[in-house]
Amino acid sequence: MELSRYPDHRELRLEDKPFFDALFQELQPRMSELTFAGLYLFRTAHSYRVSRLDDSVVVLGRGYDGSPYALPPLGGDRLNTARLLLAARWELYGDEQLSVAMARGSRVTSAEDRDSFDYVYRRRDLAELPGNRYHKKKNRISYFTNRHEFTVEEYRDRHRDGCLTLLDDWTRVHARMENGSLAHEVQATAEALTRTRHLGLEGVVVLVAGKVRAFALGERLNTTTSVCHFQKADPFLEGLYQLVDREFNRRLFTDCEFVNREQDLGEPNLRKSKLSYHPVELVRKYRIRTHIP
Question: What is the CATH number of the domain that holds 94?
């Protein structure tokens, strides 16, 4: 892969997608952050910059609290590049495999970042909601379907304005629960709805009385796993969130065994909701740094 086109610390650009897609195809990532859409849509929120170090591509960013970090190196000798980053006093944000490999050095420490763990489910479970453990989910969907006439469609450009209107409504309801990341999430969602084709995103919408009242957007994370990046629904229509989640997994990426529904960011209600869908795995993420005695 040609890495020399990346000067130090430049911004991420839409035309970078084919290059990053090739890197991710080789890497087969498990962290939900490691898709081009995931990086590009949050490029402002995390001040992402692309750099070259040794023979790897490195994405440098900042957390919502402003703390600098580097994502796992892409391509090349990833472990060697990680060591170079640590030696330069960069904090690495990585998965369990990288944490274990780095911890072999006595000067390296790592700490779990529970709020950033990804929730992974069997896609078919979320598409079919089998057995008693999904009984409450099915009841809520039945509550909605028995009271509303609706249609489910795959996302197309004609749905964009309706989805953006719903996003505005959703934002007004949630504005009082500002947690520091809401504005960034809304901005990323709006751009995702506008650039679905450019970013390779797919989605579903639920229309009630001809108006978009829910949508979900995602993409393929690796050969066995899809990832749902964005999911919004009218909070006043009970059962709609459960329905749109089911339809996303019924209709899209049906060759995938798993679906990654990203992290809970430490929000108690969101954590409770994600756990209630019975994940088969949590993708553990770590903050890895050089230990300074």
Answer: 3.40.630.30
Cα first-last separation, the chain: 39
Residue reference for tokens 């911004």: 11
Flag whether 252 is in a domain. yes
Residue 228's nearest CA partner among 251, 245, 208 is 245
Instruction: Match 């919502």 to its residue by tokens.
Output: 64
Judge whether 45 lies within some domain: yes
- Alpha carbon 114 to chain centroid, angstroms: 15
Please report the DSSP string for 205-218 in residue order: EEEETTEEEEEEEE
> What is the 8-class DSSP label of residue 20?
H
Cα 68 to Cα 92: distance, rounded to the nearest angstrom: 9
C-alpha span between 224 and 79 (Å, rounded): 24
Q: Indicate the range of 46-55, 105-114, 152-161 predicted with least confidence.
A: 105-114
The model carries a pTM of 0.93
The pLDDT tens digits for 198-232 are: 999 999 999 999 999 999 999 999 999 999 999 99
Phi, psi of 65, deg, nearest 5: -90, 5
Instruction: Look at residues 225, 258, 226, 246 and name the one whose alpha carbon lies nearest to residue 129.
Output: 246
Dist. CA 52–CA 21, nearest whole Å: 17
What gap in Å lies between CA 200 and CA 220, rounded to an integer? 9
Q: Residue 234 pLDDT > 90, yes or no?
A: yes
Same domain, residue pair 97 and 148: no
Q: How far is CA 106 from CA 94, 99, 102, in A?
A: 18, 13, 9
Contact 282, 119 (CB under 8 A): yes
* DSSP state letter for 175: G
Burial 232-250 (b: 16+ CB within 10 A, else e): bbbeebebbbbbbbbbbbe
For 9, phi then psi, to 5°, come to: 50, 60
Helix (H, G, I), strand (E, B) or coil at 131: coil
Tally of domains within the chain: 2
